[in-house]
Amino acid sequence: MASGTSADNDFDLLVAVLPPHLQEAVRKLPQAELLEVVMDLGRPPEARLVHGVARLSEAPVEQDALQAVLSRVGEVGGDNRAGIERTLHRVSAIRNRQGRVVGLTLRVGRAIQGTIDMLRDLVESGRNLLLLGRPGVGKTTKLREVARVLADALGKRVMVVDTSNEIGGDGDIPHPGIGGARRMQVSRPDRQHDVMIEAVENHMPEAIVVDEIGTAAEAAAARTIAERGVQLVATAHGNTLENLVLNPTLSDLVGGVQTVTLSDDEARRRGTQKTVTERKGTPTFDIVVEMVSRDEVRVHRDTGGAVDRLLTGAEVGGEKRRQQDGAVHVEAAPEVVEATPPGGRVPKGTPALGAPRPGPTRIAAHAVSRELLERVLRDLPVEAVVVGRPENAELVLTLRSRANSPRLRRAAERVGARVLAIKRNSSTEIRRALRTEFHLLEGVDPADVHAAVADAEEAIQRVLSEGISLPLAPRPPRLRKVQHTLVVKNHLEAVSVGSEPLRHLVIYPLGTVLTEASDSAPEDVDGPEPDDEVEEDDAPDVDEGEGLEASAPDEGAS
């Protein structure tokens, strides 16, 4: 932090605007953990911390308390935000339909030096830099430090376009957190793009810092600034580069996308459909940084190349950086290997077939509701992310009636993706299928499940390579069921032998004559797990497999 004394004084100024009975409660909380104080009319006030929520009082907030806070802060602007002069704290208002304030969020603002150590080389490169991340992940804090480093450490003429006074704080004199950078305030949020252009035309900056580019006009202003040779550092909402590409308002920041129709010869040469999606132009931002958390980022050093790979269904890649104990740990982007599957050519940059993909499991929804899939994944303890194209997935979730679609099968085989079919487009079916796919057993220690799966996979490899039969270690019935599922997927045979608690699977090569009862028998099969979803959650059949045409109903059902 810039200065312990300064930070303490800033914190005291925030506490001072609260009602007296809340000030003592807030001071008892760990200052470094406090994110914001929430006051909603008729509800007890709360403090939101890094690791939880603390109630400040049991008495509900009254209208007089809200008005008392508003009287001690700056004027609330058109974006329903106010500040405390010469601090970085932000006060945001919630209004009812008549315009009366019925809630306040007092967010703690901090200037933290060293927060961009893992991005320092990118800032010093002079290239345009875009920070992506969800709200609260620390984009503005890093942007403030970028302004200070550019101005003080690199000696550049820096102009901060401060729409809500979040970067430089409230009042006419900017907070010391931005160092020697100059600050231009914006009278109304809808004028941010005008002030961006005005900063370039009137004040001859070498670098411009902007928070939250969110409109088409602001995206166009950013391109104008980039074309005039001024370094631009900005933030935008979105978790990943894919979110930005799919956002029609902001996609121009990374080059934009367009649909083009190829000639028959060109489509044949590329091994693609005649209609493809391509990048439209040069990206405004040379580098895109996805903020995974406050201490971890993924860097795309070549935005154009990353977008091209994304649009062709290849692995986007990216350099992982993590800051821990004052040191920066860098994990280089995996090397991209070209692949040429039988019967076709693929664009340059596509990873080799079967190559392991780093990070969470990529799941695509084909003829299944993407919204339902995302909702189910939020409730399951698995590392997975939903992608828009089956060609960019490791697992494709589809309906049984669409599972044999030739187009879907070709797309899945091209990248080695698994196709998981369900009977109905409902959250119940999706949850049941994913729990089976990821070996999730209610009431069973995940470590035990992992050990059983690892035991079975090792034995399966030996049976496949050596053609011998192998017994597994004794397991409870539900874990034997998981093991048996893996055996069947690898086209082998298995039976259960022995008595509990020593009953175990024996794996045989395919075609072996078996006489024992296997764990696929009814006595070893668990019944369906209870699910609280109701039929109203069911969604109509949809085809969300981008890059694939909808399968015709007569293409076969499994």
TrEMBL record:
MF terms (GO), sorted A to Z: ATP binding; nucleic acid binding
Signal peptide from the UniProt entry: none
Keyword line: ATP-binding, Nucleotide-binding
InterPro entries according to UniProt: AAA+_ATPase, P-loop_NTPase, PTPase_dom, R3H_dom, R3H_dom_sf, Spore_III_AA_AAA+_ATPase
Highest taxon in the source lineage: Bacteria
Domain R3H as annotated: residue spans: 446-511
Pfam families: PTPase (PF25516), R3H (PF01424), Spore_III_AA (PF19568)
Start and end residues of each stretch annotated as Disordered: 338-360, 516-558
Biased amino acid composition, Acidic residues: 521-547
SUPFAM superfamilies per UniProt: P-loop containing nucleoside triphosphate hydrolases
PANTHER family: KINASE-RELATED (PTHR20953), P-LOOP CONTAINING NUCLEOSIDE TRIPHOSPHATE HYDROLASES SUPERFAMILY PROTEIN (PTHR20953:SF3)
Name of the featured protein: AAA family ATPase
